[in-house]
Amino acid sequence: MQDSQPPIWLPRLAVHGGPRFLQIADALHAAVAAGSLKPGDRLPPQRQLAAQLDVDLTTITRAYDEARRRNLLEGRGARGTYVAAPKAASTPILDLSMNIPPPPDGVDFDDMLKQGLSQVLMRADNELLMTYHLGGGSDTDRRAGARWLEPMFGRVDAEQLVVCPGAQAAIAALILALTAPGDIILAEPTSYPGLRAAATQFGRHLIAVEADRHGMVPEMLEEACRRHKPGLVYLNPTLQNPTAITMPERRRKALAGIAQRYDLRIVEDDPYWLLAAAPPPPIATFAPEQVAYISTLSKCLTPGLRVAFVLLHNPQERERFLAALRSFALMAAPLTAALATQWILDGSADGLMQGVRNEARLRHRMAREILAGRHGGTGDGLHLWVELPAYWNSSQLARAADSEGIAVTPAEAFATGSGSVNAIRISLGCIKDRGRLQAGLQRLSHLLAQRPASSGTGVV
Q1: Does residue 91 surpass a pLDDT of 60?
Q2: Model pLDDT for residues 179-237, shown as the tens digit of each residue
Q3: How far apart are CA 381 and CA 300, in angstroms?
Q4: Which GO terms label this protein's molecular function in UniProt (predicted)?
């Protein structure tokens, strides 16, 4: 006869304690840490435990899978599931270099993904999900894009939107559509590396325009327009990557006015607007005919969707942009675009984004406390910019950090011209566990406070 009582190591499941499978996995983790469960102990069969807890079998399966992911359990075939022996200690890299959203607390992303895909497959024509979409997204996808852009612009005409497979594809297609080989593209001295990669690949020349603590300097942009007659200018005005500067409204209006006077096209890459606290209106608000506005889901939700929305008011430029996009990317994958649309329309995207925003702000507070004023920025977004003491240079510091098991990005990776400031970018989202993030920031802070072992030799 089977025992009808749950194991003593498993406390009563809380009604408001979050997903039940995670409660069970957390209880397993705590029991192993406390010694209540020891390596080699056999766990109850999944069906038996499901009956004891009065939950469905799927909940137990997911709990055991999560415990295996944490290296707590191991399966031994027909003999059952056992507590795993501790693995040899290892020190995985603490990645502060990849700018991705942090996992939000209290959001069951696995469940959200399964529910979203279930709704997509139930409501959509599966044949349409598996065929070509050459018009820059379906009508429904563009309507979802218009909904996504409402916080920035209010009502948006969905016909002016193009759905793209990510912001990098959008930037590349805009370069192809709005410039010719040999044309000049203007950008700030430190800027998104994907711009430089695309410009170089397509034979365009990238020239840096001076920036200050508010972003690109209008007088310098006007001088560059007179001198170089550029094809376009690239701006990332909100929580700029990498400096984390948010350009104030007055500066945005000034740059928009210059673009209108010189009939200059601006690519406004704005992935972090929804993560910022009370950001100014986009530059596209002040010069809609001059600006191609890009909003990606990669920084607010998840990079795996590979969906970005591009707002282009000029219909001829929109057609040229679509033709350029089709030359190398053709379309956003209909299935992931449909998932993004489902999440936007049913409110899941907004809930996930709020969770990402809250988690990012918590991590910024942690970084401010540990780095003690070493960095600039407003406490929003996914990254911060740390200017280094004179005894370090950014490449040297990045190598030294790597030897400590920490990955950071040196300023040289973002340099538009030949010069570069002495700084590093720290990304706060890639490390899932806050405790590991805290440890990485503390180790980095200690490293910043030390002088290199020898100023005459490189750090290896």
Answers
A1: no
A2: 999 999 999 999 999 999 999 999 999 999 999 999 999 999 999 999 999 999 999 99
A3: 9
A4: transaminase activity
The pTM assigned to this predicted structure is: 0.80
Are the CB atoms for 214 and 347 separated by under 8 Å?
A: no
Maximal C-alpha separation, the chain? 88
> Given the DSSP bridges, would you call strands 161-164 and 94-95 parallel, antiparallel or unpaired?
unpaired
3-state secondary structure of 387: strand
Rounded Cα gap, residues 415 and 289, in angstroms:
29
| Beta strand pairing call for 291-296 and 94-95 | unpaired
Phi, psi of 163 (to 5 degrees): -90, 125
Give the whole-angstrom CA distance, residue 248 versus residue 276: 13
Q: In the chain, what are the domains?
A: 20-83 (1.10.10.10), 94-106+350-449 (3.90.1150.10), 124-346 (3.40.640.10)
Identify each DSSP E strand in 383-429 by its residue range.
383-387, 406-407, 409-410, 423-427
Cα 146 to Cα 456: distance, rounded to the nearest angstrom: 56
Contact 32, 67 (CB under 8 A): no
Burial class (CB within 10 angstroms; exposed 0-12, middle 13-18, buried 19+) of 8: exposed
Residue 420, both tokens: 């570069």
What are the DSSP E strand ranges found in 72-231? 73-75, 81-83, 94-95, 161-164, 184-187, 205-208, 211-212, 215-216
Question: Which of 34, 99, 426 has the alpha carbon at shortest distance from 272?
Answer: 99
Inter-residue contact 308 to 294 (CB < 8 Å): yes
Q: What is the pLDDT of residues 377-390, one digit of tens each?
A: 677 999 999 999 99
Closest CA to 10 of 48, 1, 288, 40: 48
How many angstroms separate the CA atoms of 335 and 121, rounded?
Answer: 9
Residues 6+ apart with CB under 8 A from 78: none
Phi-psi region of 324 (alpha: psi -120 to 50; beta: other; left: phi over 0): alpha
